[in-house]
Amino acid sequence: MAALSAATAIIAVIVPLAAGLSLLGGVPMGLLAYRYRIRVLVASTVAAGVIAFLVGGAGGLMTVLHCSYVGGLTGVVKRRRRGTPTVLVASLGAGLLVGVVAVAALAILTPLRNLIFASMSANVDGTAAVLARIPYLSGAAHELKLFFATALDYWPWIVGGGSAVSIVVANLVSWWVLSRVLARLAGIPDVHRLETAISADPVGPLPVRLDEVGFRYPSTDTDALGPVTLHFDTGEHVAVTGANGSGKTTLMLVLAGREPTKGVVRRPGAVGLGQRGGTAVIMQHPESQVLGTRVADDVVWGLPPGRRVDIERLLGEVGLDGLGERDTDGLSGGELQRLAVAAALAREPALLIADEVTSMVDQQGRAALLGVLAGLTTRHRMALVHITHYDLEAASADRTIHLSGHGSSDNAAMVGVAAAPAATVAADPGRGAPVLEVDDVGHVYAAGTPWATTALRNVTFAVHHGDGVLIHGGNGSGKSTLAWIMAGLTAPTTGACLLNGQPVTEQVGAVALSFQATRLQLMRGRVGDEIASSAGFSAHDTARIASSLAAVGLDAVLADRRVDQLSGGQMRRVVLAGMLARAPSVLILDEPLAGLDAASQQGLLRVLEDLRRHAGLTMVVISHDFAGLEDLCPRTIELSDGALQPVPAPAGSAS
Amino acid sequence: MTTSRKQSRQQRRPVVLLRPIPGGSAIHDLWAGTKLLVMLSFSVLLACLPGWVPIGLVAVWLGAAVWVAHIPRGALPSLPRWVWFVLLLGNLAAVFSGRPPFIEIGSVAIGVGGLLEVLRFTGLSLVLLGLAAMVSWTTNVAEVAPAIATLGRPLRRFRVPIDEWAVGLGLALRAFPMLITEFRLLYAARRLRPREVQQGRWRRYRHWVVEVVDLIAAAITVALRRADEMGDAITARGGAGQFSAVSTRLTRRDWVVLGLCATTCVGAVLSELAWVSTT
Asked: How far apart are CA A229 and CA A214, in angstroms?
């Protein structure tokens, strides 16, 4: 039910946007009608309608109604497993209905109709008058005028018929696209995992005892977890560590109330997910678990109506004092996670589970977040289970559980890359003409409007062939903006960014950029197609696909895999493979290590170092972390508040 | 910036959606529901009676609001040149239609009737867009969902799930900036790719269709993933319940605005009726 309402909300946003391509706006609505009930479609239409009304006035509202009418019809037909003829018949009926409604509306709103027709005929008459002056065209002018006048006489038929035809066409298009899209979406695993267990028992998650508990996901042949025997009690701070695939998250699910497939879980009462004195869970992605638009709204979001909490005290405990009125949209990852802790504490949970909460947070944010977590068990009567893949973070816990697991990590399919130290191509940075020149670049978003924000100021540096540069800075330092400018995706407000002496905005694609959100960069359904499309060669060229995969240490077997079945580390490598196949002048990597476990990070770093050393690839890495990047990037540039900070003479920065 | 050697480029002002103009004003402080009600009643008024008087009255309202809320000119997005061109062409064509009334300039009589109709239609569209923009410029999105829940309370009697709708709307508004960022990324990722050149019109067309389907599938995948994660977050909080920390109450200012709005509507209707009865 929860996932459902979120889906509603999100699709509601797409519709006004997709309405720009008016014919396609029905597709997301169709998807909703296909997957869920009409009630969801209605709720989503209301949300979309209000947003459209705010953005574009009454016209926007009409567009949304049209989209959900068309989409709803297609989705329902698809759900009933009927074919194209049904769509044709249903849409004809629906189209006629819309036509009648449109005619009736215009018939009632006589003044509006008269105005629209009068301004249209003024335009037509004027055009006709001009045409009449041109020799040979006076006949056509007369015809045009006559034709339009006749058309106006029959307006109910034309408006009605036009609406009907447009509905039928829109339905057929969205039917066709929806079928294609559904076929593509069929293989996407459902990532939503938590379930609300409805139970009449009083809430009482602690103490909990797991006896030989194991878990196997449906349609898999290995256990994702265990068997493990564990117990957790009030007042404990327990760290759970292990590599990707060792079952850490599965353990979280079991603690949060999912029935294990093996063994027994014993607890005195119900799990009480999100209830007072029950279990609270904080998850990995900072942005998607904060649900309120304002900080204070988020703390109370989902509490039963009428329940009051001391918002200021809760925010103070997590170090967000006085931010209650701020929009959650402007918070950093670390602040969002601390806000999630406050929202969890508002429920006075007996058991708090933090699942990889620091993996998407920068260094400073991580320290603050860990500080908040560390004191929780002394301040409240509760148990804290902290799941992490960083051993260091486990240090403040009372005890640590290490899961070894059965799953395989990313590197299972990795081809051994021999790292022979050879100084063949290693060009001396600082000699010769630079490849990429950033010359006095400044950038202001929404310049000239009241919302203008300065992202970069007077940034100047150069990248030479074979260089490895680390651009380092905290949240909001402007490093991502710089990456977009260096890739030519954004034209800087002032200054210039030159690639081999020419503005890089005219050579988009020559500089490769890998985003932090890797999934967004994978556009095709399968790995092979993805690499071929991204590199610009034929998808049938299996030899080149295999060699591209080998270049990033992946097995050629992966070429037929669906991209949605890849792990985080594999996705990054596939993106990299597609980019490398085009031999980019410079490769920019935005937070390449974020969200990967230690082993995947090591693997990826080894691949990158090898590429820089042996292939002489020029690399710019953007990161809020230094850890492990020293070998890859001998040169460091520090960004703070959009300006370069002087760095105490790192090697090779004298350009 | 002044030391910059290169001239600052003329940047186009972008459309900024659903973000209030920084700084406060009396209009920023109005209850969101009041603004929505005013916008809705004016939209209905103009749809029923798109005469010069109602359009003018609403335009006066807009002007007053712009003045009170200190809305700078920079808040308007810059329009591409072709829009101006089309507008000009339309008006020019209307002039040539030569409808009464006529204005005599020297010995030439120009019929401005057509032009007046076109201007009235343009004015109507601009005023309607302006109303929407005004609400978006002065309202924090966090206030919209609670306002809808309050406004829709009478509908509960007809078993309309208004709270469910308000929660959905709130989540949608929360997801809006995140999805915009993700769509921007998606578009950028596409731009970074080589263009695949296809031979022949049919193949080019087919290729274009495949691209569109891929893009929609990618966008929907992104949205569904986000939805699944948010769904987990909602479950972790034990389902939906409260969604706003502050309870909004109508102040005297709201009543004054609503009263003025009602007066304006009645006035506009009466003037239109009077005009109809005299002609």
From this structure: 9
Q: Which amino acid is at B215?
A: L
Q: Which of A418, A415, A423 is nearest to A613 (CA)?
A: A423
Chain A residues inside the 8 Å CB shell of B47: 58, 109, 112
pLDDT at A191 over 70: no
Q: Rg of chain B over CA atoms, in angstroms?
A: 25
What is the per-residue pLDDT across A43-79, written as a single tens digit (0 to 9) for each? 888 888 888 888 777 777 888 888 888 888 888 888 8
B27: number of Cβ within 10 Å: 25
A436-645 has the same fold as A208-407: yes
Provide the residue ranges of all domains of chain A, joining segments of one domain with +. Answer: 2-185, 208-407, 436-645
Yes or no, beta carbons of B236 and A289 under 8 Å apart: yes
Pick the CATH number of A2-185 from 1.10.1760, 1.10.4100, 1.10.150, 1.10.4160: 1.10.1760
Scanning B7-26 for CB atoms below 8 A from A yields 8-9, 11, 13-14, 16-19, 21-23
Q: Looking at this predicted complex, what is its ipTM? A: 0.86
Domain A208-407: give its CATH superfamily: P-loop containing nucleotide triphosphate hydrolases (3.40.50.300)
Candidates A203, A176, A205, A180; CA nearest to A83 is: A176
Degrees to nearest 5, angle at CA A251 with A246 and A257:
155
Tens digit of each residue's pLDDT (9 = 90 or more) over A502-551: 999 888 889 999 998 888 888 887 889 889 888 888 888 888 999 999 88
Q: Does pLDDT of A649 surpass 60?
A: no
Distance CA B25, CA B134 (A): 13
Q: Please, which pLDDT band fits residue A460 given cuts at 50, 70 and 90?
A: very high
| Cβ contact B51–A458 (<8 Å) | no
Cis peptide before A492 (omega within 30 of 0): no
| Structure token pair of residue A573 | 């490598």
Above 50 in pLDDT, residue A410? no
Q: Mark yes or no for CB contact B236/A272 under 8 Å.
A: no
Tell me: domain A436-645, CATH 3.40.50.300, correct?
A: yes
Give the predicted TM-score (pTM) of the model.
0.85
Do residue B225 and residue A296 have CB atoms under 8 angstroms apart?
Answer: no
Percent pLDDT > 70 in chain A is: 88
Q: Which residue has the higher pLDDT, A416 or A232?
A: A232
What would the two tokens of residue A76 be? 């329902």
**Residue A213: strand, helix, or coil:** strand
